């Protein structure tokens, strides 16, 4: 069992969990992920390592409640434990000096992009970050990002924080300006919902700005054993867990990916409803009696 | 009372009862039900105690079969268990999954004129008896001060670990999954090998011998092979052949296409058939096509069939469904064990022989059909089997919403990350000495599927055993390295049954 050391709510449906896993912390690098199991009947859930502390032997996970397992994870408290934490998995981000890099994060994507931005800065890049969310209350870690980036641009769909609009707006403006000025194109990292990563990849393509995305597919083992994480790229199928999770955004077959990640949606809904029914069952009964 | 050979010949080979085919196709409980004590004893008495027992030559771990059978026939269960576990630490597993019909039983002298002794059934009987009675293996010898890292907790790793631990070495097993057992835990279905058996047998071995089991450790990333080699006095690689293959045809990334490994892992390791009681979903549609006809294909097809029947029972409005096995050769060439093939047929799996897929067709990203061509058999190829070739103009579309590839597997290269200097063949298998398991790197041994490619449980165990013997000699000839610098994470050491 892996003890939870600390938890913190970040937004309504997102929380931070710091878990004791020295075997992962000792070699974890930006861009890698773990597979965790919470509970004896739990499923194997891939989560990006948002931070690690080698001295304390902990890793930090940021979890967004999207299904039964993630919802239950957010009820964990310090002193509770995960059944399994395996990793680090996947290739770390290739850190190089590109000059300017733009880190685009959508929603909870700010968590996985944070260590990447930090390490890209550490090797001498000028790091611009674009953080987007639907509303102001869904944003978090602007402060953390501000500490490791040279510039931070915030945008929300409704304008409740930063500028109003999608992350691609400030990104395209920036690329256009740099292109007009004859500057070399920056390397772009994009992490967030699949739709958002597709939008970023499509936006950067005309500019020829190299774009790295971190894919979040269905996974079971996370070690190359099942192939459930397959993604189509120009030279065939790749396994996201061992060949990725980072890929060239201009090379990914996004439509195929968007379809594949929905395969278990009906079952996920069923599990969530069953779990909710268990918790609210007695409440509903009282209501019905009245 | 001793029986004459004539009396022994007169005893019929004892049948093992099985669950009714119709009933079992709708549950995941064990198909074969085991021998009774009376039947087991009678069966053991059929053995004529050959002076030159060929059965033993057929056993990859060299179990002293006649001694086991003599003790069992005499009713001395304790002695029979001892004789068996002296060479085989997983008898309840092997009694269920070994292809005895092509190993010990194939060579049994009785087979020439009568039927061979049912050695496999007796092995299962004794293995189960040992578990029920909590019969433990002999205690380990005095500690030698040497530490060994075993990578992978499948049959090869477990056997190597057990043998070295018995000899007094401190053994740590590193396993990437959250449960030990390798294919036994993630691949072979419950209806052939119940989880409780693996758990109990692994626990007996691991706990009694003080073997440290570190799950959730992916060698290659958590630690590299290089680190293990520097830290431990010796390293054994038993990482198996877990990488699934897909056919190079259009449409293999459509929704509804997966590897047998994925289906089986969801069903077995993750208990997906009990969803939503267990959190991992798994589904087999109403028209499933399994490609390939080996043992893995049989397991995938029979699991898919059970998922369909369970769903039909829970949702009577959905159809009962069909599972087809699509195979490019004919029935005579089916590579699966005869017993598995027969069981699949009895349960209702449909076999489409001489049929080869050329594309997976889809609509809106989902599988709708498997396009195939009819095949005919031509001249024999290198393997002696007649080579199939396509019949011109014979394309046909099999309606399918699920396509499962069961085409064999190769070693997972993850373990070699950062250890590129380990010599491998062009199929990705590790080059190791056949008799000793030594690799080209001093201090590193390898065995099981990672060396041979997908093979059998018992051949993997044999390789683990051979390596352990050679490692023992090596370990005693070299000074110990002293305490480890790779301390265990508090969470990662777990008992076998977690
Ligand atoms: C579905 C199926 C059914 C089968 N049925 C039978 C049968 O009936 N009878 C029979 O004799 N054989 C059968 N086999 C074959 C048999 O299971 C294998 O030959 C045998 O398990 C090989 O043992 P192994 O120890 O070499 O590897 P495995 O059993 O594959 O174990 C390897 C272990 O190493 C772990 N590992 C891999 N990489 C790493 C890493 N980098 N770090 C840490 N750990 C790692 C894996 O997670 C796994 O637990 C079947 C195989 C399959 C897939
Ligand atoms: S070959 Fe058959 S009869 Fe002879 S010792 Fe072995 S099991 Fe007994
Ligand atoms: S998650 Fe199983 S192969 Fe990638």
Descriptive account of the structure:
The complex is a heterodimer of chains A (290) and B (498). With 290 residues, chain A is of the alpha/beta class. Chain A folds into 2 domains: 2-89, Translation factors (Elongation Factor Tu (Ef-tu), domain 3); 100-261, Nucleotide-binding domain of ferredoxin-NADP reductase (FNR) module (Rossmann fold, 3-Layer(aba) Sandwich). In chain A, 31% of the residues lie in helices and 31% in strands. Chain A contains 9 helices and 16 strands. Chain A has a 7-stranded antiparallel β-sheet. Chain A has a 7-stranded mixed β-sheet with strand order 11-10-9-8-12-13-16, with helices on both faces. A two-stranded antiparallel sheet of chain A has the order 14-15. In chain A, helix 5 packs parallel to helix 6. The longest helix of chain A has 25 residues, at 265-289. Mean pLDDT of chain A is 91; it is low at 282-290. In chain B, 34% of the residues lie in helices and 15% in strands. Chain B contains 18 helices and 16 strands. Chain B has helices at 5-10, 21-24, 37-45, 54-57, 65-73, 77-85, 91-97, 104-107, 119-132, 155-166, 183-186, 195-208, 225-231, 260-269, 295-314, 338-347, 449-452, 457-477; strands spanning 147-151, 170-174, 212-214, 234-237, 243-244, 257-259, 287-291, 322-326, 350-352, 355-363, 366-380, 386-390, 396-399, 402-405, 409-410, 444-446. In chain B, helix 5 (65-73) runs antiparallel to helix 6. Chain B is globular and about 65 Å long. Bound molecules: flavin-adenine dinucleotide, iron/sulfur cluster (SF4) and FE2/S2 (inorganic) cluster (FES). Flavin-adenine dinucleotide (FAD) is lined by residues 97-99, 151-157, 174-177, 182-183, 187-188, 217-220, 238-240, 242, 264, 295-296, 299, 412, 414-415, 448-450, 454-458, 460 of chain B.
């Amino acid at each position: 069992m892996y003890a939870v050391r600390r938890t913190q709510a970040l937004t309504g449906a997102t929380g931070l969990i710091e878990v004791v896993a020295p075997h992962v912390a000792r070699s974890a690098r930006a861009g890698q992920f773990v597979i965790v199991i919470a509970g004896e009947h739990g499923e194997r859930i891939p989560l990006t390592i948002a931070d690690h502390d080698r001295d304390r032997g902990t890793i930090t996970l940021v979890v967004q409640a999207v299904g039964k397992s993630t919802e239950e994870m957010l009820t964990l408290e310090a002193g509770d434990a995960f059944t399994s934490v395996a990793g680090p998995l996947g290739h770390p981000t290739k850190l190089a000096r590109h000059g300017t890099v733009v880190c685009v994060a959508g929603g909870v994507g700010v968590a996985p992009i944070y260590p990447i931005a930090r390490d890209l800065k550490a090797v001498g890049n000028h790091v611009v970050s674009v953080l987007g969310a639907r509303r102001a209350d869904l944003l978090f870690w602007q402060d953390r990002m501000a500490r490791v980036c040279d510039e931070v641009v915030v945008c929300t769909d409704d304008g409740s924080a930063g500028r109003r609009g999608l992350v691609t707006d400030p990104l395209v403006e920036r690329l256009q300006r740099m292109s007009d000025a004859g500057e070399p194109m920056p390397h772009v990292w994009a992490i967030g919902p699949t739709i958002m990563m597709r939008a970023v990849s499509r936006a950067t393509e005309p500019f020829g700005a190299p774009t790295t995305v971190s894919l979040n597919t269905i996974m079971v083992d996370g070690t190359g054993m099942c192939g459930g994480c397959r993604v189509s790229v120009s030279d065939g199928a790749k396994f996201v867990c061992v060949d990725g999770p980072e890929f060239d955004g201009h090379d990914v077959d996004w439509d195929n990916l968007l379809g594949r990640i929905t395969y278990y949606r009906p079952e996920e809904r069923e599990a969530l409803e069953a779990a909710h029914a268990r918790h609210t069952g007695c409440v509903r009964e009282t209501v019905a009696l009245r | 009372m001793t029986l004459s050979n004539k009396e022994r010949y007169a005893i019929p080979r004892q049948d093992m009862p099985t669950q009714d085919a119709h009933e079992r196709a709708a549950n995941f409980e064990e198909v074969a039900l085991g021998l009774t004590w009376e039947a087991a004893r009678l069966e053991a008495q059929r053995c004529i105690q050959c002076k030159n027992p060929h059965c033993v030559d057929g056993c990859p771990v060299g179990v002293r079969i006649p001694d086991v059978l003599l003790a069992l026939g005499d009713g001395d269960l304790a002695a029979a268990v001892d004789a068996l576990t002296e060479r085989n630490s997983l008898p309840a597993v092997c009694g269920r999954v070994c292809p005895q019909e092509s190993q010990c039983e194939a060579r049994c002298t009785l087979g020439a004129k009568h039927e061979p002794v049912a050695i496999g059934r007796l092995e299962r009987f004794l293995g189960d008896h040992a578990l029920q009675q909590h019969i433990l293996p002999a205690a380990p010898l005095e500690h030698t001060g040497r530490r060994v890292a075993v990578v992978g907790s499948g049959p090869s790793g477990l056997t190597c670990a057990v043998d070295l631990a018995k000899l007094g070495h401190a053994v740590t097993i590193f396993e990437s999954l959250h449960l030990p057992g390798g294919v036994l835990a993630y691949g072979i279905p419950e209806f052939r090998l119940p989880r409780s058996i693996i758990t109990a047998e692994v626990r007996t071995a691991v706990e009694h011998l003080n073997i440290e089991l570190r799950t959730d450790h992916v060698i290659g990333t958590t630690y590299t092979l290089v680190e293990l080699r520097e830290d431990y006095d010796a390293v054994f690689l038993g990482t198996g052949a877990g990488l699934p293959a897909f056919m190079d045809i259009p449409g293999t990334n459509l929704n509804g296409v997966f590897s047998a490994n994925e289906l089986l892992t969801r069903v077995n390791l993750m208990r997906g058939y009990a969803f939503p009681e267990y959190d991992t979903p798994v589904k087999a549609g109403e028209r499933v096509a399994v490609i390939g006809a080996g043992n893995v294909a049989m397991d995938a097809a029979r699991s898919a069939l059970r998922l369909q029947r369970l769903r039909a029972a829970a949702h009577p409005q959905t159809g009962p469904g069909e599972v087809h096995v699509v195979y490019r050769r004919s029935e005579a060439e089916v590579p699966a064990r005869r017993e598995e093939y027969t069981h699949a047929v009895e349960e209702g799996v449909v076999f489409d022989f001489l049929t080869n897929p050329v594309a997976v067709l889809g609509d809106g990203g989902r599988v709708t059909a498997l396009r195939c061509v009819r095949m005919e058999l031509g001249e024999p190829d290198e393997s002696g089997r007649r080579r199939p070739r396509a019949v011109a103009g014979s394309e046909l579309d099999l309606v399918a919403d699920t396509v499962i590839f069961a085409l064999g597997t190769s070693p997972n290269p993850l373990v070699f990350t950062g250890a590129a200097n380990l010599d491998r063949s062009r199929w990705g298998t590790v080059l190791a000495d056949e008799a000793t398991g030594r690799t080209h790197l001093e201090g590193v041994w390898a065995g099981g599927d990672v060396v041979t490619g997908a093979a059998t449980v018992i051949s993997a165990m044999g390789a683990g055993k051979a390596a352990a013997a050679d490692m023992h000699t090596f370990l005693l000839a070299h000074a110990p390295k002293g305490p480890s610098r790779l301390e265990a994470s508090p969470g990662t050491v777990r008992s076998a049954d977690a």
